[in-house]
Amino acid sequence: MRASLLASAALLAVCGAGQAAVAADAPRFFVRVATVPVFETLPAGLDPAQKTAAEILAATADGLTAVFTDSPGTSLGVIDLTDPAQPGSRGRVALGGEPTSVSVVGGYALVGVNTSESYTHPSGHIAVVSLKDLAIQARCDVGGQPDSLAVDPKNRFLAVAVENERDEETNNGALPQLPPGHLALFDLGPDGTPTNCQAMRKVDVTGLATIAPEDPEPEFVDLNAEGRVILSLQENNHLVIVDAATGKIVNHFSAGTVSLDTIDTRKDGIIQGTGSLKDIAREPDAVAWLDAHRFVSANEGDYKGGSRGFTVWTDDGTVAYDSGPLMEHLAMRIGHFPEKRAGKKGSEPEGAEMGVFDGERLFFINAERANMVAVFRDMGPGQAPAFVQVLPTGVGPEGVLALPERGLLLVAAEEDSAKDNVRASVSVYARTATRPAYPTLESADDPKTGAPIGWGALSGLAADPKDPARLYTLSDSAYASARIYTLDASQTPARLSGFVEVTGAPQEKLDLEGIATRPNGGFWVVSEGNPDKGLANLLLAVGADGTVERTVTLPDEVARQAGRFGFEGVAVYGDKDHEKVAVAFQRPWQDDPKDQARIGLFDPQADTWTWVRYPLSAPTSPAGGWVGLSEIVSLGDQRFAVIERDNQPGPAAALKQIAVFDLAGVTPAATGADIPVVGKTVVKDLLPVLKATNGWTLDKVEGLCVAANGGVYMLTDNDGVDDATGETLFARLGSRDELFK
């Protein structure tokens, strides 16, 4: 990972120094080796479409068994990690309430369970679960609604943040809302179970914070080897340090404020670092000790703040380091920035974890809305941390767990909607790589803002006819601004080095889905229409500066047959003296057979359209869905390659392929005449490429091109991090001669 991913000069310098201390060929990077969809851990007979979640993680000391909390399922899931690349379910434990957090000591899982009847009458307990027989052995009352819990490294104490959370519907969520929260402390016996199960030590934390001191709302807790508890009061923007043995408050201090520049603060459909925030409260969520005197906080925000980053603290309340806009810039650079959250709390760093791997102290920060976890190397007191890498996650990463003894990292993603093809999951990463596998595509800095070029939802790919390293791609209607990006394929990861705005189109809203370079310069691009929104399918000739030079529409009798899925890819064929354009329609229109998609052939000189149809494969996914085209590329001599795919992601993905058809011997039909059907030959199954990431299988393969040197590249559309993981896969598939013989 190049240092360009860093947001500050200080981190740049330290990152280089930190990495130089490790052998160049040492396996010091994490790579995802497995993803466990939570619905696949449900008992037989339950509806796999029911809502599930994976929120907080814990594991046995040997790292062979992991557990996760499933709040909607009111249960604890158990995962066998004997083979990290092939994790399996060991079953579930019904808890009789909402699990909020979990730790494992010895052979027992200690689970926080919320049984509150209302916000004003909170209740809950610690369920002591035997991992041998998956049965509850005891319940220890915590005097309210538990949130986070943690055990110290020596297995002496269990600390529970009892939040007694506010009702956000009451008085617009304003504090105070009694009863107040507190800290509950338990002593653990040799077997890991609480010895004071019915007599926990209650630590009163009222009267400490400046914000609503009478109503503290404990959010997250961690313990160090010295038995010191760090407790975040998120809504109160306060941090408290407690001695677990005595329950005495050792120190407490405000989490303070941060001012940020070069970030996106407007929900306007454009990702750009032109905004600022002044004196925004950190409002930390997760906290994790780094050593005896330092800890890190993930400053998600919940009430009135959220500083979009993380902070390293010393236990006297000193800010040793603050990340500023780094997390926002990182999300922007790798295409994970959640534009719809720009006006709220941005990427929302929420989770924090520390682990010592092969002598290196690493910490991990989850960004809940950006679906990523950033990895940093702690360089020690008085030094800024060094950025190591960023990892893609499922949707809504909540819990993060380091297992240094096994060289593993686990991340729980909680968002789940079978209807939207978004499922909760647990991702497993192993520290076995000598270079980061992700991202495969990143952006350079925008000289106008000083922040990374914002991007996402890339749809379509084209090659420069002369420069083998230069490709072009574009963004679809996920964003308000239609852009054509220049992509440098010579770097690893590949880089979006610049962009132009498409201007002068006949309609304000464009949904750019395909791009091809013209032999005399400029581009042909297609914008997909939507009859329900009054948007036409458009073929646009665009200059190198983004100006629309010509608009081509469909014949009226064809346009009247439009369906929801229209123009999806474009290719240029012929030569510079007589270029022609082929346009792929994604799915059949009203007058097409149900298993055939139309290919439109436009002659710019004659200003005429002719037609052929492409035979679509039948859907093979157990989830059903449809199959359509998402790209077309000219191979010369009237041969074309297309991407044919289903619309299913994750385990349901079944058909993603490249096929070739030839117009030789085929006479395209004029408008209104009988349309011939071309033959096709499948040349590449893309599912192995997509599944090789060991994540949630991406469904939208939308870009394909042949570079000037014959290299063949593919690109996926990340849907703008909207009900999607946000991952983008840019990959070289081989050479033209290998794929298209």
Automatic annotation (TrEMBL):
Keywords: Signal. Residues 454-719 form the Phytase-like domain. It holds the Pfam family Phytase-like. InterPro entries: Haem_d1_sf, Mesenchyme-surface_protein, Phytase-like_dom, WD40/YVTN_repeat-like_dom_sf. Residues 1-20 form the signal peptide. The keyword Glycoprotein does not apply. PANTHER family: MESENCHYME-SPECIFIC CELL SURFACE GLYCOPROTEIN (PTHR46928). This is Alkaline phosphatase.
